[in-house]
Design goal:
This is EGF-like domain-containing protein. Residues 351-361 have a biased composition (Low complexity). Residues 141-183, 296-337 form the EGF-like domain. The protein is of the alpha+beta class. Among the domains are: 24-132, no CATH class; 208-237, no CATH class; 241-297, no CATH class; 304-338, no CATH class. The protein is built from eight helices and 22 strands. The strands form eleven sheets. It has a two-stranded antiparallel ribbon with strand order 1-2. Helix 1 packs across helix 4 and helix 1 (4-54) runs antiparallel to helix 6 (120-128). The model is unreliable at 19-23 and 346-361 (pLDDT under 50). The structure holds 2-acetamido-2-deoxy-beta-D-glucopyranose. Residues 193, 195-198 line the site of 2-acetamido-2-deoxy-beta-D-glucopyranose.
């Protein structure tokens, strides 16, 4: 058996190796694409630098002598150096590395190829250092993207690695499209136009799950919450008219397009058909039906008294009432009996407690 220390060291070594391998795999895959974007940055900045220096000359002023020498500056090594200096952010390692590695190519292009190959990106990134491909092409040999290099993914998606030496040329389709060629429509969309090379997907009517046209009569299948009517069109299902109702006893049902919701009845109702105290099916206990609505019953003013014990009073509240002992009486053994006045006894002892007791009353 290995010692724990050795085991630990081996484990650490192993995870290090795995990490490095993992890093290299993802790194090299990513690099092929990122090499091209680095190169794109460089040639874009070259073109910017070219424009900026177009208005300059050796000195910076515009004297007559400088005017005469301007033509020389235009094609000079000095101008090239000035442009090359501005190609990368100083912090971008990849960019500076690429420029250093291929500095000679800029000179070659500047002095010998510029006229014949004015597009620097094409000459440098695609044809010379071969980190990019023409638009619509991908991979080491610049193969055509799925759907062809003219309109990759038939104009309905993005080709993996498009314009770089990386990627696999496959399509990731735009929102409403799918399939290897991005010619098919996703559920809820239909092909308004379609041939072997062109496809336009348009949204179905909101009642369709799938469809062949724009109206609710063109559904292949109705969406959930919708059903075929006798004209073969998808119409809203009224869930609320179902028996039994899909809602609870103390709720009313609200039908919506494609769905429904259950809402709480007013608290004065027992069952209801809608919101508010006017839509009760029956009144909740403590409420009575008056003029089409449910109102509180004043139990205390009914002819038959509800608080029946002696020395007891009644107070009405919403939906109910309470009985409590009259002033000067207190509840004891379910009866209202006269309070024993504690003040009388304590009065002689301390005047303070007496005062506070009076105050509380
Ligand atoms: C496909 O349809 C598009 C758009 O309607 C049209 O421009 C194109 O010529 C058509 N292609 C074929 C092969 O029919």
């Amino acid at each position: 058996m290995l010692s724990t220390g050795l085991q630990m060291r081996l484990m650490r070594l192993l995870s290090c190796v795995t990490l490095v391998l993992l890093f290299q795999v993802t790194d090299s895959k990513k690099d092929l694409k990122s090499f091209c974007s680095t190169c794109r940055i460089i040639t874009d900045n070259f073109n910017k630098g070219f424009e900026i220096t177009a208005k300059q000359n050796f000195g910076g002023g515009n004297t007559a002598w400088e005017e005469r020498t301007l033509s020389k500056y235009e094609t000079s090594e000095i101008r090239l150096m000035e442009i090359v200096e501005g190609l990368c952010d100083s912090s971008s390692f990849d960019c500076n590395h690429m420029v250093e590695e291929h500095e000679d190519h800029f000179e070659t292009w500047w002095f010998k190829r510029k006229t014949k190959h004015p597009d620097l990106h094409k000459w440098f990134c695609i044809d010379t250092i071969k980190v990019c491909c023409p638009k619509g092409m991908f991979g080491p040999d610049c193969s055509a993207c799925v759907g062809g290099s003219e309109r990759p993914c038939h104009g309905n998606g993005k080709c993996d690695g498009d314009g770089t030496r990386g990627g696999d040329g496959k399509c990731s389709c735009d929102d409403s499209y799918r399939g290897e060629f991005c010619l098919d429509c996703i559920d809820g969309y239909f092909n308004e136009v379609r041939n072997d090379t062109f496809s336009l997907c348009t949204e179905c009517d909101s009642s369709c799950k799938t469809c062949t046209g724009a109206t609710n009569q063109d559904c292949d299948e109705c969406k959930e919450g919708w059903e075929d009517d006798d004209q073969e069109a998808c119409v809203d299902v009224n869930e609320c008219s179902k028996d039994p109702s899909p809602c609870e006893e103390d709720q009313y049902c609200l039908n919506t397009d494609g769905s429904y919701s259950c809402k709480a009845c007013d608290k004065v109702c027992t069952g209801c058909t809608g919101p508010g105290p006017d839509s009760c099916q029956a009144c909740a206990s403590g409420y009575q039906h008056t003029e089409g609505t449910c109102t509180d019953i004043d139990e205390c003013s009914q002819t038959e008294p509800v608080c029946t014990r002696e020395n007891e009073e009644c107070v009405n509240n919403k939906g109910s009432y309470v009985c409590f002992c009259s002033e000067g009486y207190e509840e004891r053994d379910d009866e209202c009996v006269q309070k024993i006045e504690p003040e009388k006894e304590e009065e002689s002892e301390t005047s303070e407690t007496t005062t506070s007791a009076h105050g509380e009353l």
